[in-house]
Design a protein that fits this description.
- With 420 residues, the chain is of the alpha+beta class.
- The chain folds into two domains: 3-19 and 232-417, Enolpyruvate transferase domain (UDP-n-acetylglucosamine1-carboxyvinyl-transferase, Chain, Alpha-beta prism); 22-229, Enolpyruvate transferase domain (UDP-n-acetylglucosamine1-carboxyvinyl-transferase, Chain, Alpha-beta prism), CATH 3.65.10.10.
- It has helices at 22-31, 48-59, 84-89, 97-104, 123-131, 165-175, 191-202, 234-246, 262-270, 308-315, 334-341, 371-383, 394-399, 403-409; strands spanning 3-7, 13-17, 38-42, 63-67, 70-74, 106-110, 135-139, 142-146, 154-156, 181-185, 206-208, 214-218, 227-229, 250-254, 274-278, 281-285, 295-296, 320-325, 345-349, 352-357, 365-367, 387-391, 413-417.
- The chain has a four-stranded mixed sheet with strand order 21-22-1-23. Strands 2-14-16-15 form a four-stranded mixed sheet.
- Helix 10 packs parallel to helix 12.
- The radius of gyration is 21 Å and the shape is globular.
- The chain binds uridine-diphosphate-N-acetylglucosamine (UD1).
- Uridine-diphosphate-N-acetylglucosamine binds at residues 23, 26, 92, 120-125, 159-161, 164-167, 188, 192, 305-306, 328-329.
């Protein structure tokens, strides 16, 4: 398994271009199953999760072609239920359930296993699909879903921790080909869900209330091919913002949509980091010390759970106390023990991580546990004195396109070391 070796202390300087959004492109690729026509998706990041999704589409009989960052998919006929092994390995693959049901009224996927950031239930997905008229059986780790017809209805999709992102995506993708009108209440408002809805509209779907908590879908008989450019990855953008701030750098991000991460910009400014428009880019600089800031993760447009770990890495450098509260996923603090190996002082009390920042970080070998935790360790390693080795970076490859190349171009001393 590959690892990163980071010689910390170099401030990041220069320009970096943000890739297309991982969390937007996965359901959008799944949505190409809703038509037999050719769909072209642009600005597709080169990630292992995307490669998995493309293999799943191929295993369902779709023709997939890649040219640069554009991917064309043609699912003229859908065969079988896809490769279970692949489906089992990637949680995002749950979003083929909605389109398969929409297109041919039948789907079978393996239940997503437990994951390091807590149990990842899909009860809300199943509740929504059942409300549309699907019969669902959960057996031996699989979900079998079948519907004679899908009929629109009103579905309340809010859960214990708020709306569900992929759950909303699944219901949307089933509802576009259902009969009649479906109203999704307490829908997720994340830009990635809105991007999927815009792609569906380009395919001929009728959807209103896009990006709001109440989305109305009027079913149509069939969809056609479409050409769509994926939105920029707001989580990657926020990761580079935190990395630049942590290293006292001066970095300009190109190709971002800052309106998608206002909550993070607000907290960075509170922490004494300067973020300003610079031509077409977004420039982040830090001159003085980082100041502590409290953060609570929330559904969009609140502070994203996917930036919690990276922001915590930054807060370890801020003299004083910052309280970071995780409200979306239980046990999403796997990075805490590893940050402590680098010298951070953090105590966990229920959903709160109390960070006593300001102690200098020093390099150490650390273990990546999930995608965003890995990013936090890279940020801390870049800011630490000495050498940090981040093991198991296959987690990072799931969601960051050529992270080490992008960082190296900004002046970071980072290398990928191949492991067995
Ligand atoms: C998506 C993102 C992930 C992000 C998360 C929250 C993708 C591929 N992944 O994951 O990066 O961290 O949104 O912004 O887009 N829940 C239920 N029942 C369900 C579904 C979810 O109780 O049926 C709970 C979850 O346990 C969690 C909360 O709802 O507490 C939000 O999860 P959800 O929005 O569904 O996350 P994902 O869509 O899986």
């Amino acid at each position: 398994m590959d690892s990163f070796v980071i010689h910390g202390g170099a401030p990041l300087r220069g320009e970096v271009t943000i890739s297309g959004s991982k969390n937007a492109v996965l359901p959008i690729l799944a949505a190409t199953l809703l038509t037999g026509d050719t769909c072209t998706i642009r600005r597709v990041p080169d990630l292992s999760d995307v490669a998995f999704m493309l293999r799943i589409l191929e295993s369902l009989g779709a023709e997939v072609r890649r040219e640069g960052d554009a991917i064309t998919v043609r699912a003229a006929r859908i065969q079988g239920f896809g490769d279970y092994e692949l489906i089992r390995k990637m949680r995002g693959s749950i979003c083929i359930l909605g389109p398969l049901l929409g297109r041919r009224r039948e789907a079978s996927v393996s239940l997503p296993g437990g994951c390091i950031i807590g149990t990842r239930p899909i009860d809300l997905h199943l509740k929504g699909l059942a409300a549309l008229g699907t019969r669902i059986q959960v057996e031996n780790g699989y979900v079998h879903a079948r519907a004679r017809r899908l009929a629109g209805t009103t579905i309340f999709l809010g859960g214990r921790a708020g709306p569900t992102v992929l759950g909303t995506a699944n219901i949307l993708m089933a509802a576009v080909l259902a009969e009649g009108v479906t109203v999704i209440e307490s829908a997720a408002c994340e830009p990635e869900v809105a991007d999927l809805a815009h792609f569906l509209v380009a395919m001929g779907a009728r959807i209103s209330g896009i990006g709001s908590p109440t989305v109305t879908v009027t079913g149509v008989r069939e969809l056609h091919g479409a050409d769509h450019e994926v939105i920029p990855d707001r989580i990657e953008a926020c990761t580079f913002l935190c990395a630049a701030a942590a290293t006292k750098g001066d970095v300009t991000l190109q190709g971002t949509r800052p309106e998608h991460f206002g909550a993070v910009l607000d907290k960075l400014r509170e922490a004494g980091v300067t973020v300003e428009r610079a031509g077409t880019g977004l420039r982040v600089t830090r001159r003085g010390k980082v100041r502590p800031a409290d953060v609570t993760t929330q559904p969009y447009s609140g502070f994203p759970t996917d930036v919690q770990a990276q922001f915590m890495a930054l807060m370890t450098l801020a003299p004083g106390i910052s309280v970071i509260t995780e409200r979306i996923f239980e046990s999403r603090f796997m990075h805490v023990a590893e940050l402590m190996r680098l010298g951070a002082d953090i105590a966990i009390e229920g959903p709160n991580a109390i960070v006593k920042g300001g102690r200098p970080l020093s390099g150490a070998p650390v273990m990546a546990s999930d995608l965003r935790a890995s990013a936090a360790l890279v940020i801390a390693g870049l800011a630490a004195k000495g050498t940090t080795q981040v093991h198991r970076i296959y987690h990072l490859d799931r969601g960051y396109e050529r992270m080490e190349d992008k960082l190296r171009r900004l002046g970071a001393r980072i290398e990928r070391v191949a492991g067995e």
